[in-house]
C-alpha cells in the first residue's frame, strides 16, 4: 500500500456489538462498550495508515426502536466517551457529528456541539460520527433547504444541481467517500451515507465489530487497492 492507493475517506458500519455480547452470555450494552473501545483504536489505525477521514455509524434514526434499557445504556456510554473524544480532538483530530442532534438530551447535545466548535480548526484528520443519522433524512434535509430558497425566489428549481445538494450534506467538508467497511457478516448499507457511497467500494467481513483489528482494516484497504475504479467509464 502507498498513498496513491489508500482511500482518503472510509465509512465504518459498526455492527455486531449485540451479537458479540450474546455469544458471551453478557448484556447487549457490554458489547456496545467493547465496540466503543474499538472505535477509538480505529481512529488511530486510520491515521497511522495515512487515511484523511473516517465516518463511523454509531446510532441511526432507526436505533431508537431498540429496547429502552439498551438505548439508555448507549446514551450513558456516549456520555462516558465524550471525555475520550475530547482528548482525541486535542491530537489534531477534527470531530464532526452528523445527524439530527436535537433528539439528544441537552447535556449530550451541548458537549457534542462544543467538541465540534473546539476542533474545527484541525486539518490532520476528520472523524465523522453518525448519531441519530439516516441517509434518506440527510438528503431530505438538503432538499428542504433548497426548496426554501426556491420559495423565497433566491433560485429556480431547474438551478438545483448535484453539487448544490452535496454542499448541504453533513459531509460537505469531507473528502469523497472511497470505501465502506461493514463487519458482522451483513451485506447492506442500512441507510448509511447512501448519497456519498454512490461510487464507493464495499468490503464486508464476518468479524463482529468488537473483534475488529488493525489487520482487518489493512485487509480491507488491500482489497480496495486491488480494485479498478472507473466511475462509469471504461
Structure in words:
The chain has 234 residues and is an alpha/beta fold. The protein has a single domain (9-134, 176-225), classed as Decaprenyl diphosphate synthase-like (Undecaprenyl pyrophosphate synthetase, 3-Layer(aba) Sandwich). The chain has 7 helices and 6 strands. The protein has helices spanning 17-23, 28-48, 68-89, 106-119, 135-151, 162-166, 214-225, and strands spanning 9-13, 53-60, 93-98, 125-133, 179-182, 201-204. It has a 6-stranded parallel β-sheet, sandwiched between helices. Helix 2 (28-48) packs parallel to helix 3 (68-89). The longest helix has 22 residues, at 68-89. The chain starts with 8 loop residues before the first strand and ends in a 9-residue tail after the last helix. The mean pLDDT is 93.
Quick overview of this protein structure:
With 234 residues, the chain is of the alpha/beta class. It has a single domain, classed as Undecaprenyl pyrophosphate synthetase (3-Layer(aba) Sandwich), CATH 3.40.1180. Helix content is 42%, strand content 15%.
Amino acid at each position: 500500500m502507498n498513498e496513491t492507493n489508500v482511500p482518503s475517506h472510509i465509512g465504518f458500519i459498526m455492527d455486531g456489538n449485540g451479537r458479540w455480547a450474546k455469544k458471551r452470555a453478557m448484556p447487549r450494552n457490554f458489547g456496545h462498550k467493547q465496540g466503543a473501545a474499538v472505535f477509538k483504536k480505529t481512529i488511530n489505525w486510520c491515521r497511522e495508515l495515512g487515511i484523511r477521514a473516517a465516518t463511523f455509524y454509531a446510532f441511526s434514526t432507526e436505533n431508537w426502536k431498540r429496547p429502552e434499557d439498551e438505548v439508555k445504556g448507549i446514551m450513558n456510554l456516549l456520555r462516558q466517551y465524550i471525555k475520550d473524544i475530547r482528548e482525541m480532538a486535542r491530537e489534531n483530530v477534527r470531530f464532526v457529528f452528523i445527524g439530527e442532534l436535537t433528539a439528544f438530551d441537552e447535556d449530550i447535545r451541548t458537549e457534542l456541539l462544543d467538541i465540534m466548535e473546539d476542533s474545527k480548526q484541525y486539518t490532520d484528520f476528520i472523524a465523522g460520527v453518525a448519531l441519530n443519522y439516516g441517509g434518506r433524512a440527510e438528503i431530505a434535509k438538503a432538499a428542504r433547504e433548497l426548496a426554501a430558497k426556491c420559495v423565497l425566489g433566491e433560485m429556480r428549481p431547474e438551478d438545483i444541481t448535484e453539487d448544490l445538494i452535496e454542499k448541504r450534506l453533513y459531509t460537505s467538508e469531507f473528502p469523497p467517500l472511497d470505501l465502506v467497511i461493514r463487519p458482522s457478516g451483513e451485506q447492506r448499507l442500512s441507510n448509511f451515507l447512501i448519497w456519498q457511497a454512490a461510487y464507493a467500494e464495499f468490503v464486508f467481513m464476518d468479524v463482529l465489530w468488537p473483534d475488529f483489528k488493525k489487520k482487518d482494516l489493512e485487509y480491507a484497504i488491500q482489497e480496495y487497492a486491488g480494485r479498478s475504479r472507473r466511475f462509469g467509464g471504461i
